[in-house]
Each structure stands twice: as C-alpha cells, then as structure tokens.
Design goal:
The chain has about 170 residues and is mainly alpha-helical. Helices cover about 60% and strands about 0% of the residues. The chain contains 5 helices and no strands. The chain has helices at about 30-55, 80-115, 120-125, 125-145, 150-170. Helix 2 packs antiparallel against helix 4 (about 125-145). The radius of gyration is 34 Å and the shape is elongated.
C-alpha cells in the first residue's frame, strides 16, 4: 500500500509534551503583572458593576415594549396646529409599522401551516387562510395605493374618497 505523504516532509508530532526546563528561580514577570492587573483593576470593577446592575435590574425599562400615548387623529387637529399635525403623522407611521408587522405574522402563520400540512392545506388551514384574507383586505383598504410616500393626510383623503363613493352608491 503506497504512502499518502512523505514522512521526511511531514514528520510525526512528538508523543509527549516536553517538560519546560526552568532556567531561573525568579517568577515570570508576565504572570505577576497579569495577576496584579486582575486583582487591582479587573476584579473591583467587575464586582462594582455587578452590584450596580443588580440595583438597576429591578427598574429596567423594556425597550421593545415602549408605550406611546395615543394622540389625536389628523381630523381632530385644528388648522395651523403644526405640532398636533406632526404628532398625528408620527402616530399614523407607528400604526402603519404595527399593521405591517401584523401582516407579516399572519403570513408567517399561513406559510407554516401550508408547509406543515402539505397538499391538504386547503382543508386544514382554512382558519389561517380566512384570517390572512381578511387581514390583507383590511390592510389593502387602508394602505393600498398610497405609494412609497404615504402619509396620514393621503390616507385620510383616501378614506374620504372611499366614504364618498359608498354614499354615491347608496344614493
């Protein structure tokens, strides 16, 4: 059987780790400096930080559940009240992002059900399918055709046009 490698080019590693032959009785200065730094700087700072974090643990605000107070809608703002209009715009943008995330979650649930059930997903995922179609319809009614630069004012005008069209159909 031919050899895969040349033993002269790739010698076998030593079988045992050689014992370090200590030449001096003096301790290693690197070890001394490392331990000096650890006990004089690192250990006190880490201990102090642990104590402070223990106190702050009780009143830590959860950043991903920040609650904003509801502000008036754009229709409730008076003419010339730019602060109210700005707050209404920011509220609309937060609502828009929340509705986008709701759509993503519902879509993920439907996809998970479809992949889990396979070919029989029409029967077994009817509840998820119905929820998705209703959510998509509501999302499209509210935010569809706003374009890339959708705003609360555009959304309000779209809602107004939809209401006027519904009134024209009933009359």
């Amino acid at each position: 059987m031919p050899s895969d490698h040349d033993k002269a080019a790739y010698p076998a590693p030593p079988r045992q780790t050689p014992v370090v032959d200590k030449q001096t009785a003096l301790p290693n200065p690197a070890v001394i400096l490392t331990k000096l730094f650890y006990y004089s700087v690192d250990l006190p700072v880490t201990t102090f930080r642990g104590i402070i974090d223990g106190f702050r643990e009780n009143n830590r605000p959860v950043y991903y559940h920040q609650k904003y107070r509801r502000v008036p809608y754009l229709t409730e703002c008076e003419e010339g009240d730019y602060t109210c209009c700005y707050e209404a715009e920011m509220q609309w943008r937060r609502d828009f992002k929340v509705d986008q995330e709701i759509m993503k979650v519902v879509q993920e649930r439907l996809r998970a059900c479809q992949s889990r059930e396979g070919h029989s997903f029409h029967q077994n995922c009817a509840k998820e399918m119905e929820l998705f179609t209703e959510t998509a319809k509501n999302y499209q009614l509210r935010y569809g055709d706003l374009g890339a630069y959708g705003s609360s004012r555009k959304c309000l005008m779209k809602q107004k046009e939809r209401m006027m069209a519904a009134q024209a159909q009933t009359a």
